[in-house]
Amino acid sequence: MSESLWQRQLSDGLTAMGAGLDAGQQEKLLAFLVLLNKWNRAYNLTAVREPRQMVPRQLLDSLTLLPYLTADRVLDVGAGGGLPGIPLAIARPDIAFTLLDSNSKKTRFLTQCVLELRLDNVEVIHGRAEDCQPDQPFTQITSRAFTALTNLVAWCGSLLADEGQFLAMKGQFPDDEVSELPSDWQVGARHRLDYPGCDGERHLLIINRVSPRQDSITGG
């Protein structure tokens, strides 16, 4: 029952969003959802437990980031149950995704997803963002329900390339968090996210460094 419902919701949702994923990619997305639902019973990976909400709130929500992906290497911090990292990796096999989480149960689940879904473009790292030392910084870093923006830039700023950007997914627009951002970071753009079945406000904040030139202009 759930899987036929999910298949219909996913196909209709992707069409409405203009996301042209082939049958194989859709099969992998649904297989990921089956894994997530199965492991969630023991590992508490997501609060979404109503079958009818799973495709919209887990798959379609994650895939709203597709138009904003421009890098060939992307880090998903606080990857948790693989959202948005796993759906994005399925949709964009040409991009190398690194999924980082400090919870060993969650990284165990993510590793299992990589194996079962044969995601050659995904690396899973168990650890804290502050301790992560990649070979080179990332041009884009995604986060979904991870932490406040001040923590995001403090913990992960060293992982981001100088001209890179954070893609921070939020619910209601976080005015307080934006106002508390350090002066060397700014919201370069904000987008209202929408998808079939969306039952509340969703926003994407694109955060980047304030360059010295912008500082001098701002300072007069």
What does this structure look like?
The protein has a seven-stranded mixed beta sheet, with helices on both faces. It starts with a helix and ends with a helix. By secondary structure, it is α/β, with parallel strands linked by helices. The longest helix is centred in the first third of the chain and has 21 residues, at 23-43. Residues 212-220 have low confidence and may be disordered. 41% of the residues lie in helices and 22% in strands. It is built from eight helices and seven strands; from the N terminus they run H-H-H-E-H-E-H-E-E-H-E-H-E-E-H. Belongs to the methyltransferase superfamily. RNA methyltransferase RsmG family.
Mean pLDDT: 92
Radius of gyration: 17 Å
Strand content: 15-25%
Q: Tell me the helix content.
A: 40-55%
Secondary-structure content class: alpha/beta
| Biggest pleated-sheet summary | 7 strands, mixed
Termini distance?
Answer: 63 Å
Q: Order of strands in the sheet with the most strands?
A: 3-2-1-4-5-7-6
- By DSSP, the count of extended strands is 7
Bulk shape: globular
| Unreliable residue runs | 212-220
Q: What is the string of helix and strand elements?
A: HHHEHEHEEHEHEEH
Number of helices: 8
EC number: 2.1.1.170
GO biological process, one term: methylation
Organism: Marinobacter zhanjiangensis
Catalytic activity: guanosine(527) in 16S rRNA + S-adenosyl-L-methionine = N(7)-methylguanosine(527) in 16S rRNA + S-adenosyl-L-homocysteine
